[in-house]
Design a protein that fits this description.
Helix content: 55-70%
Number of strands: 0
Radius of gyration: 27 Å
Number of helices: 3
Shape: elongated
């Protein structure tokens, strides 16, 4: 029982060495599919069905990533990101215009009634 109390295990200790070279850095970042943002755009901000299109491209990007096609996943993810940006900008602009018109209508009706 000289191997830590485990029976059937050899008394050999294995070590793993990692060599890190200064100045060289390899980053293999997987492409982003922006699925959460696309879901938000689809449910809450879907002007001109841009949220739906972004969700479709996000799902395509995730499928390409699972298959191992990094370039295809990066392309679909970039398209989904662009569609999400457009949907968010249009929705926020529309919401702000709605708030401004609502305030102006209430101010005008309040001044004529008083």
């Amino acid at each position: 029982m000289g191997n830590g109390g485990l029976t059937g295990q050899p008394g050999v200790v294995q070590h793993t060495a990692v060599n890190i070279t200064a100045g060289q850095q390899v980053i293999t970042e997987s492409p982003k599919d922006h699925i959460i943002w696309s879901l938000f755009s689809f449910v809450y901000a879907n002007p001109f069905c841009l949220g739906l299109a972004a969700l479709i491209y996000s799902i395509k990007a995730r499928d390409r990533k699972m298959v191992g096609d990094v370039d295809g996943a990066r392309h679909y993810g970039s398209t989904a990101r662009s569609l999400n940006i457009a949907a968010t900008v249009i929705a926020v602009t529309g919401f702000l215009i709605f708030i401004i018109i609502f305030i102006l209508v209430n101010l005008v009706s309040f001044t004529f009634m008083g």
